[in-house]
Amino acid sequence: MNVKQLAAEKAVEHIEHGMTVGLGTGTTAYFAIQRIAARVKEGLGIRAVASSMHSEELARQLGIPIAPFAAIEGIDVTIDGADEVDEALNLIKGGGGALLREKILAANSAKFIVIVDESKLVRKLGTFPLPVEVIPFAYELTRRQVQALGCEPTLRTVDGKTFVTDNGNFILDCAFPVIDNPADLSGKLHLIPGVAEHGLFVKMTDTVIIGSGDGTTRYL
Ligand SMILES: O=C[C@H](O)[C@H](O)[C@H](O)COP(=O)(O)O
């Protein structure tokens, strides 16, 4: 079995009848959504909210009940992937551009489970360029302010066109040498007008489930 699928299916074991479930985004979260759908078909009664239009569409197609956000008071468990996980379980997320909605779900979840393969584990964050979501207005100026924090920000494009998030914003992929203090950088980024959100998830993770090539999973 694919290592991402291994981690995803182990995580779905944490979902119980009656729960409100947050659906992540990305190639690892995809396997979790597939497994949740299979359990729903077997009779598991849950409702879900999604961290991207893509995941919501997938969930609907697979028959997972989607709740409007206005109808929920909180989320019992959210299962999502990550681009990097450090030793303190801080994350870089947003490789797929879904970081803002993902962070809202994570922040409102009683339990936030991160599913990865071994390649995502790092001692310190920063090898993966940090995605920073910025509003399009005057984004060149916002880019300069982000750059002044010590990185090289690149406007994300796909097929030669500027990538636009589900929220209508742009993404700056920010190459930092290494991120020694994620909490400090998180605070500094939040102070820049024009930054909608960034992909550092500091002290938000409850559990990391890692799928390994030998067919086993382990927890951090
Ligand atoms: O915006 C995308 C999300 O943060 C993803 O969860 C993250 O990029 C990991 O994706 P994948 O599981 O495809 O490596």
Describe the structure.
The protein is built from six helices and 15 strands. Helix 1 packs across helix 2 (27-41) and helix 2 packs parallel to helix 3. Strand 9 (157-158) and strand 10 (161-162) form a beta hairpin. The protein is 28% helix and 27% strand. The protein is α/β, with parallel strands linked by helices. A six-stranded mixed β-sheet has the order 2-1-3-6-14-15. The longest helix has 15 residues, at 27-41. The chain has two domains: 3-120 and 203-214, Rossmann fold (3-Layer(aba) Sandwich); 130-197, ACT domain (Alpha-Beta Plaits). The site of ribose-5-phosphate has 18 residues, from helix 2 and helix 4. It catalyses: aldehydo-D-ribose 5-phosphate = D-ribulose 5-phosphate. This is Ribose-5-phosphate isomerase A. One of its GO terms (cellular component) is cytosol. Its EC number is 5.3.1.6. Keywords: Isomerase.
- The protein's oligomeric status is single chain
Number of domains: 2
CATH top level label of the largest domain: Alpha Beta
Radius of gyration: 17 Å
Under CATH, the topology of the largest domain can be stated as Rossmann fold
The count of DSSP E runs of length 2 or more, i.e. the number of strands, is 15
Largest sheet composition: 6 strands, mixed
**Uncertain residue segments:** none
Instruction: Identify the overall geometry.
Output: globular
| Bound molecule kinds, no repeats | ribose-5-phosphate
Residue-averaged pLDDT, rounded? 97
Q: Note the run of SSEs as H and E.
A: HEHEHEEEHEEHEEEEHEEEE
Query: What structural category do the secondary elements indicate?
Result: alpha/beta
Strand order of the largest sheet: 2-1-3-6-14-15
Report the CATH architecture of the largest domain.
3-Layer(aba) Sandwich
End-to-end distance, in Å?
21 Å
Strand residue percentage: 25-35%
Tally of alpha and pi helices: 6
**Fraction of residues in helix:** 25-40%
